[in-house]
Amino acid sequence: MTAGPATRIPAPDAEATGPDLTGAELTGGLNGWSTTASADAGVDEMVLLDGPLGIVSKAMDERDTSLIMPSGTSLAATWDPALVSDIGQLIGQQGTERGVSAILGPNLNLPRSPLTGRGFEMFSEDPYLTGVLGAAWVEGVQSQGVGSCTKHVVANDTETERRRMNSRVDPVTLRETYLRPFEAAVRSANPWMLMMAYNRVNGTHCSQHSDLINILKKDWNYDGVVVSDWYGVDDTVAAARAGLDLEMPGPARYLGVHFAEAVASGDVPEARLRDAVERISRLADRAGRRTGGAVSAPARLRSPEEQRDVLGKAAAASFVLLENRDNLLPLDKSGIRTLAVVGPNAAKPCFQGGTFATVRPEGELVTPLDAIHEAFGPGVEILYEPGAVPTSAVSLTELGSTAPDGMPGVLLEVLPHASGKATDEVLYSEVRQASSFVWFGPVPGLGAGLPGRARITARLKLESSARWTLGAGGTGISSLTVDGKLIMEVPPPAPDDVMGVVARAETQQITLELPAGEVEVVVEMAFRPGRVQAITAVAAPEQASDPLTDAVAIAARADAVIVVVGDEQGSSRESADRTTAALDPACDRLVDAVAAVNTETVVVVNASRAVLLPWADKVKALLMAWFPGQEFGRALASVLTGSTAPSGRLPVSFPARNEDIPGWGVGLDAELTLDYAASEPMGYRHFQGTGQAPRYSFGFGLGYTEFALVEAVAAGKAVQDTNAADGVEGVGVRVTLRNSGHSAGRDVVQVYGRAAGETGFRLMGFASLDVGAGDTAEARIALDPLGFRRWDAAASAWTVPAGEWELRAARNAAEDGILCRIAL
Ligand code: BGC
Known about the structure:
The chain is an alpha/beta fold and about 800 residues long. The protein has four domains: about 25-285, TIM Barrel, CATH 3.20.20.300; about 325-385 and about 550-650, Glycoside hydrolase family 3 C-terminal domain (Rossmann fold, 3-Layer(aba) Sandwich); about 395-540, Jelly Rolls (Sandwich); about 705-824, Immunoglobulins (Immunoglobulin-like, Sandwich). Helix content is about 20%, strand content about 25%. A six-stranded mixed sheet has the order 9-25-24-23-10-11, sandwiched between helices. Strand 2, helix 3 (about 125-140) and strand 3 (about 145-155) form a beta-alpha-beta unit. Helix 2 packs antiparallel against helix 10 and helix 6 (about 210-220) packs parallel to helix 7. Mean pLDDT is about 95; it is low at about 1-5. The structure holds beta-D-glucopyranose. Beta-D-glucopyranose binds near residues 151, 229 and 356.
């Protein structure tokens, strides 16, 4: 059945003998971010907002700010469920304060490959670690009276062609690996909503996949709402019969009134509609959105200072020290008179990827460079050079643009469609501090469902004539005009992944010579009626001289150098995968050049994914800093100076070369199918299987002291677990750890296990231990009950392999550690 015009849902009638359609309107969205209310069902509208790195502005307005939290990878590097729950509480509190009923996060997909465009949102390549930390995030959010919409079920780790691609996954891999984090979150934290992914799994779109939805609702007894990803439905009967409860965004094209019609015509059983209405009503109960009901208050309100404190702790705990030759870190302030800070990310750190879920930061943003100044004080001379300039074009406001009236910013205007009557009549105009705008539903001054035009006008001041790249794009036909002269026309994007195109803020770019003085740039976009509209203008000046030379000069004369390199916001993107795990070549070139002139070099990598680090042997210290949230600067300074010791551990394996990535070179086939067999098992299990060493192993990380495992003993009595998940409870490993170094520190002890006859080990438990210098500590690490199960595809059931299990206590996945055994 295809979409049709909305008709009214018949009112409930006591005499009627037909199916009960009450509340059917609840199953379709109202607009971009709200569900529809139903007076008959006694349910109010509910706001569902992106996540997961913070609360996104409903109006996509740069003035509507919230705290930027650490990315999923960054949180996973803490290996600390309590800290992740604290971050969940923060985001939950911000959600409640903004009237949100559910936050669209966490993203519990697995970064199957470092190439996945959206890997920064994801936690870890390991399903157990992802499940434990994902559940902690959900529990933290929901403790504040706002729901988590855990996403995207399932196998949504390819961004290219994400709406149409097909993940071909065998049932064992699906159950044991890709569904596992979702199962863990459902069983231990019960997210109020689950979002079905865009992609197909074994041929069927996830939001219309009855086998998948049955796993959630029947196998896991999930009682929350199953919602589509935005625009991720394309068939009423298929989605409704499969078990989808809610179509987003609105207005409804496939569910809502269409759901009611399909039930009335007998195409969909009435019980299915009752199930969906009951689940959405339960969400309203939980979120305090029953008509006349009270909205629940956050369990614990944190002051802005406390919020900053949690963010700072989480950021510092996520940093992973990969090299520290000659104990260069922490830097000895007394031995440094001149410190060179180099790299674009020191002054312009990257906090997030290029997705819809872009958070506009709230309050003060201290850069690493500012924080290093603060930490070293006036007694140390600090020199800064970017050394490499990001190649991508940026917003006009970042380049110091002004509106025609001289105000800083750009002038944004909305006008009627060009064929309308008064075509020059300006319906809306405002000076704004961004040059990329998105509207779901109504366009300001114009309203919803009408054609029109949006225009950005900005002036740039050029000291001398130079070559510039200018870019324009949007949801309709865009034009770029410079000083009144039409430079380029850009066709509208293909309609198959509107969300992707808009999220990427795609532009067509042109390079041209601009004269000295003031230049007026105008981007105008004519759009047809649509549910989302977007316009973007970007620019970048061409570099006159090579910035590397200046950076090398300051590095050569400094006592030590801190290089901060990494990604830009556009490097990790929704809806597009990357083609290499390498950093921008200009960053690699910069590190090489600096290391060649100064041995005392520390490199900080601000990228939230596994990256290639070809120069790792040439620098003394190397710190992975991910996208650690908006307290990045001060957290980094505290680790560099030793106020905090780094204790993060890698949540993803770092390959030495692109060729070592599981499934390297295998892409979508002609039918847009990705065969997971080419990359499974992925992550550290791939490296175990090939015998090849990763550059840095999953679970690896150094600190400012030394640790050694002393003993590991399997303990406990295995019993069938009690929550009907068919696992094994009660097994643990008692581990003794010695801090053999000279300062107190924290280590993460990991337990990997395998059943008799299996080749690879899988993570089954972990614990963090704080140990004083020279001390020994003991932990009893409880093993994951679900980790003992294996999926028997023939019987379509879980089994627990009997016999002897080998349990390996180790400090990363590639280490032999200490082996112990338990019989099941
Ligand atoms: C993304 C989701 C997101 C939704 C709403 C989709 O394109 O895949 O993760 O929650 O948009 O912004």
